[in-house]
Description:
This protein is 36% helix and 23% strand. It is built from eight helices and eleven strands. Helix 1 crosses helix 2, helix 3 crosses helix 5 and helix 5 crosses helix 6.
Amino acid sequence: MRTTAIIVAAGIGIRMGESISKQYLMLAGRPIVCHTLTAFDACDAIDQIVWVLPKADLDFCRHRILPQATVKKPILLVPGGNERQESVYLGLLALTGEPDDLVVIHDGARPLIRTEQIDGCIRIARSTGACIVGLPATDTPKQMSASGVILTTLDRKTIWTAQTPQVFRYDLIRDAHETALKNQNTATDDAALLEMSDHSVHIIQGSPYNIKITTKGDLQLAEAMLSCRLVRSLFYP
């Protein structure tokens, strides 16, 4: 049984407001996506990596970005689509996976993922078929109307926010994507596609450090975390 990491970094990062895609911006001396690739390369449970990226950037990433990641595991560069869901599906299609192989789907813009979180998610998915990392809500969540009026207060004990990695058995996640494509369903994460197929998805505790870099403020926060010796030791012992 093989375990493949699919790193999704095919967007252009409009909210960052930069002239280059956000995954190529520098974080602690290296492009953001290099930190992500290095984290999965260092995980013993991962056998190979699929990096889904913009088609126009294939040569640039192969010759300019990838050498900075110093990845030792087999890595396949795959052109992505217009939306994240399409990019993940293209990554799945690039695999010649067996039904019980595992696929670890992760956002390229989450560079501060730790090996133990990847391992923990994989361990649960091996026995259940689907597991993601996330965080329990700490503030009181409110459901609101389109006009900004609170409709109801939700019980925060039952509310979690989803992160990546999200780990699935290959046949389950591919079937979920193909069903969504057929029915023209969309979702903001891959776990939701399995939920639409009535398959249970487990969730384990993630990390507040596992932020998704979307804005300049997020990048500054990631820089600040890596500049702290105690926090940096979590990622670079």
